[in-house]
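Reply to dn_fold:

You asked what the input looked like. This is it:
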Amino acid sequence: MFIKVNMSKRQRVIDNYLHYRSINRRRDEDIEKITADLEVMKDVYRKIKSVIEKFEDKYESYLKSVIKKSLKFNKIYDILHHYDELINARQLTNQKRNQLFNVTGWIQEHFRNITFHEVIVFKNLLMRIDGLLNKYADSNRRSQKAELLPIDVVDRIDQFRLEIERTLSSIHMLYLLICRRANIEPIFEKNDFDHKLSYIKRTFATMNEIIKKSEIENSNNEQLKVLP
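and this is what came back:
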């Protein structure tokens, strides 16, 4: 009995030894494989770094050649900064274009079933924007002339400037009205009246085309009604 117990213990010890030796062997194999993969990755890293450095040298040389030929740039930072400005300008242009598309879509949807009364209202708005455009141009022109006159016409200059302020205020409010009706956020600065006027003109030009189309369709419908 004693011998059997000792033999059993001895066998368990041997089994445990073989088990852990097998585990250690697999672990050593994994370490060797990871070490080999790491060496491969180091080699790939060195090759990639070499390629990057080669292209970095070419890129830097190209930028330096641009500086040498250009009167605008003095250092590489100027070129990179100018590039960032171009990217930002492109994004702003796309944003303004998308806003115009949104307004155009809203106008077409809103005026699909336009009534006669609404036609009259927006014709008046078209006349109003034409008046604003004329006032804006005339006020600028008269103000520029007035600024060249002697000091004794300061009151007249102030009067012209007051007209300009009223005109610009009307342009700003009309721009906000269009944005609010179209449920979009205004993107032009408060004093950016040139872009606002262009935007308003495009908007009302689209509206005018829709109104004319609606009038033609209404006229055709009336003619169809009187036919036998």
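Confidence is low (pLDDT under 50) at residues 146-154, 224-228.
Hope that clears it up.
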